[in-house]
Amino acid sequence: MTRLLEGRTALVAGGSGAIGSAIAVLLAEHGAAVCVHYHRNQELAQEVVDRIAPLGRRCATRQADLTKAGEAEALVDFTVRELGQLDILVNCAGIARDNPVQFLSEAEWDQVMQVNLNGPLYTSRAACKHMLTREAGTIINVASVTGSTGQALRTNYGASKGALLALTKAMARDLAPHGIRVNAIAPQIVEGGLSTGADPRFVDSTRKMTPVGRLGTATDVAGTALFLASDLSKFIAGEVVFVTGGLITHQI
Amino acid sequence: MKLLGGKVAIVTGGSRGIGRAVARAFAEHGARVVVSYASADEAAASLVEEARRDGLEVSALKGSVAEVAHVKQLVAETRAKHGRIDVLVNNAGITRDGFLMMMKEADWDAVLDVNLKGTSLCSKEVLKAMVSQRSGRIINMTSVTGVVGQAGQTSYAASKGGIIGFTKALAREVARFGINVNAIAPGFIETDMVKAMPSEVLGESVKQVPLQRIGRAEEVADAALFLASAMSSYTTGHVLHVDGGQAM
Amino acid sequence: MDLRSKTAVIVNGDVAPAREICQRLAGSGAHLVIHQPPDAKQPSYAADLPRQAGQAISVHAASLRDQAQVKRLMEAAKEPSKTIDILVYVARPKGTNTIRSMDLAQWNDDLEEDLKGLFRCAKEISKTMVAQKSGRIIPVYFGVGVRGEGDLATWSAVSGGISGIIKCLAMELIRYNVNVNGVAYGFIEEVDFPFMLKRTIKQYLSVLDIPRAGTAAEVAGAVHFLASSDSSYITGQNLHVNGGLLL
């Protein structure tokens, strides 16, 4: 039985983060060559590559500030040059700057919108130029339940993820006739993710309310990313897969 | 990479169409599969024979999922033969289309019994095994029709919509036992039902699909593989659309 | 007259269906503070709005790109009744673009205008509403983000972002008795949809067995409901006024 991603190449934007690194490693385990993008954490990105290299996969790290369209394009160009092609883009870079809306600063709004929404937009635009020449590819946006069902203290984060979910669908409709599938993943709280440092009472009550009895892990999200990256999901487009342990069962 | 190595699966409505594709895909990925089917003896026999020829383990039992006796027998024989049950795919389903104003009560009942009650009876019966194992996956076949509706299919839509609610409720009930319950909503899939549509109607329908084609039963089976495997460890109570983006 | 002595701020009063919303809220007795961008013409309808003795209706220019101007707008809005009870935020129409064809400067400008603009208004007004322990925030927008349209990429993203804001604000402000709900409209006669000719809209709707486009008055009815005490137990919702378009 062949590996699910034999011969494929993936770019994981935000590949040095908790979720991104788990995705990068799992895609590599299934046969993909992987470019691990990072913005600041070069050492973490290198650690990811150090885990991938022994699998015998081609891999690389690359720095870019994805809030700048030019750097997003350069990142994609680099991936294609270094690794030969681009089949899979996973947009996994995300930040949170939580505050009650009365106290949210312009900078906190801008930073979150730039990284969480503009970053995936610019990178996807650059990636689909390559994917269109081959009429094939898959783009996976790691969003959040917050974009669909909301959360207090996260007006900026919720706006960025709600917009990303809608943009995912618009992109899916536009690119599907060209053989490019675009889908999203909506996780809830992931251990080691952006809610590290959130109010422990909130985290605890979320855990208690989650039917499977635990919070999400990066591996949980990675499993779904693998599915959406592979041909197993060939007839799936514009889908938001909820990875929440049953916490959220209504969609939109 | 065998996604279901060592696992045991039951697939209802497994002799033809989507169910057959699911049974094959599961077996190819290492599962031992027991299929339930209502009437297609030849199809069931050929499924079992082809599997045997390919070194795969698939057996079949005839009966209706709307009948408790058959469901009990299906589950008991699977447990006796294979010792455990890891995955149940509730795929058995029928249609008796027509406008509500003219619908016969017997037709309504038949659709609800096989599609919704059958799903519930089979799920209830396998839970005993899954709860004691503290693990399991239940995958219910709903439909894009259950999500957005279709004229002439009130009974089918009711049964498929009901499956969605059932999926979410059961997911919450059994999550604590390590059992994930999800649904798949296929769109236009290349089955006998769809092949029988007039080509102009099919052509018009395909225009509504962003991927610009109808899907293959194997592609629905692939989604079932995802929901049966470790890849979907943290997804429960979810409706996965396999429809080329039709019901986005 | 169920909104008598309430004050409603209507942001982007120069954009359809703001006029009909103002007519409806004014007709129900509310004081209105109608906002428009600095370069827009005075909405001529302001003078024609129904009003009773003691009912104040005023027009204020402010740029939503400037927090200080938004702040001044909300402060001026407290004049009539010392409270601000209702914020109606009417989103501006966007152009056609796909992810491939979009102009990025335009994208950023559009998001600044409608997402950050809503944020700035919500930020300022929530200070007042939290102190009052009451209020209604009602974004009014084209509901295209729920399903997305390939050639309405920006508009889809803005629509989805507004919905995300509604959900988050609703959860945050619920303890202060401030309800946040959206009116997501479909095809409305008086709204300009630059990407589609009116006759194409009619054809499109008839394929779906929807007999007509909606009217701005029907959108205004939904806004009135969400502004009134009849909806006091509703929050975090989007009321879809689209004749069944999303089905």
Summarize this structure as a short list of keywords or feature phrases:
heterotrimer, A: 252 residues, alpha/beta, Rossmann fold, seven-stranded parallel beta sheet, 8 helices, C: 247 residues
Structure report:
The complex is a heterotrimer of chains A (252), B (248) and C (247). Chain A has 252 residues and is of the alpha/beta class. Chain A has a single domain (9-242), classed as Rossmann fold (3-Layer(aba) Sandwich). Helices cover 45% and strands 15% of the residues of chain A. Chain A has a seven-stranded parallel sheet with strand order 3-2-1-4-5-6-7, sandwiched between helices. In chain A, β4 (88-91), α4 (106-134) and β5 (137-142) form a beta-alpha-beta unit. In chain A, α1 (18-29) packs parallel to α2 (42-52), α1 (18-29) crosses α8 (218-229) and α4 (106-134) runs parallel beside α6 (155-175). The longest helix of chain A is centred in the middle third of the chain and has 29 residues, at 106-134. The model of chain A has no long low-confidence stretch (mean pLDDT 94). Chain B is α/β, with parallel strands linked by helices. Chain B contains nine helices and seven strands. A seven-stranded parallel sheet of chain B has the order 3-2-1-4-5-6-7, sandwiched between helices. With 247 residues, chain C is of the alpha/beta class. Chain C is globular. The B-C interface holds B 148-149, 210, 248 and C 147-148, 150, 247.
